[in-house]
Here is the input.
Amino acid sequence: MRVKLIPYFPIVLLIFHVVGIMLFQFYQNASELSWFNILVCGILIFLSEPNLKKAGDVLAVIFVLGFIIELIGIKTGYLFGNYTYGNALGAIIFNVPIIIGLNWFIIVVASSNVLRTFKIPLIQLAFLSGLLATFLDALIEPVAIKFDFWK
Here is the structure.
């Protein structure tokens, strides 16, 4: 059943993002729904993976490591400089939104899946995926600050 639904996932994501863009235009507090968008994206990306056991392991590792990296960043100012999270990303533990680990999963998996189509060696894939994820983060940064994801 899941495999039959996978072709529709991009359509669902497109609809969510179009509705999200419209909400941001007309609803001042639209950013407060961003955590839900991240959750839906994460679930659909996870379910799109052919091996759910392996994807679950990858999700767990990236989620935990991403959260820990953000926790180190918030507490020390290392890695990303001094910053704090706003309220737009939902529930927070230790000053870090819980959903941020899933956001790391989305960015890492999406970046690597885009580059996987080029059939490049694993070490190059890892390096280029990191560059792509960093580039994406740079694009997100001004929007994230404007809508209280972080400061």
